[in-house]
Amino acid sequence: MVVSPQEQRMRAPDPAHAGDFLGTGAGTPIQQSSLWRDAKRRYLRNKAAVVAASIFLIILAYCIIVPIISPYDPDEVNFDERFLPPSLEHPFGTDGFGRDLFTRVALGGRISIAIGFAATLAILVIGLTYGSISGFVGGWLDNAMMRFLDALYGLPYLPFAIITLAIVGTVNFWTMVIALSIASWFTAARIVRGQIITLKQNDYVRAATAVGARWFRILGRHLVPNTLGVLIIAIFLELPGVILGEAFLSFIGLGINPPDASWGSMAQEGRSVYRTHPILILIPSLAIATLVLSANFIADGLRDALDPRTKET
Amino acid sequence: MVGFIIRRLLWTIPVLLLVILMTFLMMRQIEGNPFRRSERAVSPAVQRNLERKFNLDEPWYVQYALYVKGVATGDLGPSLVLRNQSVNDIVKEHFPKSLELGFLAMLFAIVFGIPLGVIAALRPNTVFDYGAMFFANVGFAVPSFLIATLLIYFFALQWGDIFGLPTSGWSTPQSKILPVIALGLGPMAYFARLVRGTMLETLQQDYVRTARAKGLSSRRILFVHVLKNSLTPAVTAAGPLLGFLITGSFIIEFIFAIPGIGKYYITAVSARDYSVVMGLTVLLSVIVVLANMVVDILYGVLDPRTREART
After folding, report:
1. CA A185 – CA B184 distance, rounded (Å)
2. Cα gap A59→B40, rounded to integer Å
3. What is the mean pLDDT of residues A182-200?
4. Could A163 and B277 be called an inter-chain contact, meaning their C-beta atoms sit closer than 8 Å?
5. Contact B239/A155, CB-based, under 8 Å?
6. Is B277's pLDDT higher than 60?
């Protein structure tokens, strides 16, 4: 497959992290950098994953750039231009208030994606903390913590998200993040714990223990950084669920309030006129679907690239 | 085997207590006493009586114990908003509809998802495979509210004359078709992907090659050897799928105006009927915990290797 140098740069592992492995630490640099280079090579070989990553980046760019360069004020009401069909001036048409949909979908995407990433980050932080404590300490504590997770396994997040929103009383960006992450971190914790347990058996960890490294150094230096791979995969595994969760909450009227809009709340607005103007629910929903689909394929590609031993079942 | 089942049954008890405790503690955090709202100004004496009637004057652990006792005896308490209605009445009225919706959606998912996965696995990397997997991926990514709206738009409105399907409701058999498809499409996609994956793996196994070498017909190999062993892992899918169905039913019942648990849950949250919200949350959680238990036991029976790994 031909990949332009520019594309290659775009998809290179994050330079901020690449540096981590090139700097200090005797013995490790060569092996680590080749791990990431191998991963990149394997990822780029996966056509579906490359296409998905491109679409993902295009959506991100669209959401960031369009509101800046758009000639339309996304909140300006213009009753002369209600429900215009798609045209050159308005690529997605206009909504019931005569607002340009192309601009508004980009703005809604900003909120949806921002909530998605923030909640995913929260899920990973909770999962990393819980999972690494459980996996690192081991013994009865590990047992108890995992039994606790087993107990919560499979609980539907939506009722708990709704209760959380009822507890905090207001709906805004941060309360949505809390509501969406509070009952969704179980899988992430399990993944991290599994990774830590596997890593603990490695010779270099035993060597570090043997030379007298203290527990926080082993955990912080050897174990947690090596979960980076599974965490990157986990970002794209968790993101779709969170973005759909936000959309569901907004759709049933318990999410982001007008005039702020997310893709979910825009779909809810569009829902009221779907008989006459189906495009108003179609476009925000398709935006969600495209983003979720590309995130799923990116996760698959990353899993094959970073963790070639595990196969999808 | 019996020991395994008994252990698993006993383990469910503390899990249920824990899940109810968590719901209980979360619900306590919600601001405001239902009887202290300004629009229902009552005298302090009445207030005290009300609090005593609903045990709100007891410490939280006593309330919790009383609540657990209620749940154990199948009594979820009274509704705080609807007079003369208990949470049990509400469950009795709305739950069967949700149960029917979920059951039919699951049936739809199994009947269409498993063949889709089998076809994809038998012709890997062909048009069939790509088509089935594209369909499966899309089915899992498109939000259910779009699927539902599109189904209504086309089959109830645009082509309404041909199909004659209603846009909402849950009274006639015709009205159940669209909600069931809308809810079942995601699980169907999940089944298709899962069956395809496990089947591709099973096809590589030595015993399949042996069966082929023995000269068994490919149909016999497929049904007797491959399919049976490929479907065992699909049992574990029941856990995540149940969560998916519950979440999905909230949306689908909302859109199709089906008077089920999900729709009522949203109504109860808006009405601040917290005893109903709590009762329904506990009910859904108990269902999930019990389903996990059944899946674990079933899996232990089907695949003895997992008996020790799982409690």
Report:
1. 25
2. 50
3. 88
4. yes
5. no
6. yes
Is B138 within 8 Å of A313 when comparing Cβ atoms? Answer: no
Per-residue pLDDT at B36:
53
Question: Helix B238-256 to helix B173-203 angle, to the nearest 10 degrees?
Answer: 160
Shortest Cα distance from B72 to chain A (angstroms)?
18
Work out the average pLDDT over A86-94: 76
CA distance A154 to chain B (A): 6
Per-residue confidence at A290, pLDDT binned at 50, 70, 90?
Answer: very high
DSSP calls for B32-97: S-TT--GGG---HHHHHHHHHHTTTTS-HHHHHHHHHHHHHTT---B-SSSTT-BHHHHHHHHHHH
| Binary contact (A251, B233; C-beta < 8 A) | no
Token pair 């496990």: residue = B198
* Closest Cβ opposite residue B146 in set A155, A240, A289: A289
What own/partner pairs with CB < 8 Å and gap ≥ 24 does B157-162 have?
B157/A275
What is the rounded distance in angstroms from the CA atom of residue A292 to the CA atom of residue B139?
A: 11
What is the complex's ipTM, to 2 decimals? 0.82
Pairwise CB contact (< 8 Å): A254 & B138: no
Q: Write down the pLDDT at residue B71.
A: 83
> Does residue A259 have a cis bond before it (omega within 30 degrees)?
yes
Q: Is A9 on the interface with B (CB under 8 A)?
A: no
Say how far apart CA A174 and CA B175 lie, in whole Å.
39
The pLDDT, as a whole number, for residue B306 is: 65
Q: Tell me which amino acid residue B129 is.
A: D
Considering only residues B164 and A229, tell me which one the structure prediction assigns the higher pLDDT: A229
CB A78 within 8 A of CB A93: no
Higher model confidence: residue A164 or residue B311? Answer: A164
* DSSP label at residue B159: T
| Mutation site for B-interface testing, chosen from A55, A170, A251, A288 by largest number of B Cβ within 10 Å | A251
For residue A100, the cross-strand partners are A94
Task: Report whether A265 contacts A171 (CB < 8 A).
Answer: no
Q: What pLDDT is stored for residue A1 in this prediction?
A: 40
CB of A154 closer than 8 Å to CB of B240: yes
Pull the structure tokens for residue B33.
């006493």
Write down the pLDDT at residue B41: 63
B143/A167 touch (CB, cutoff 8 Å), yes or no: no
Measure Cα distances from B113 to A79, B100, B110, B132, B251 in Å.
47, 19, 5, 10, 22
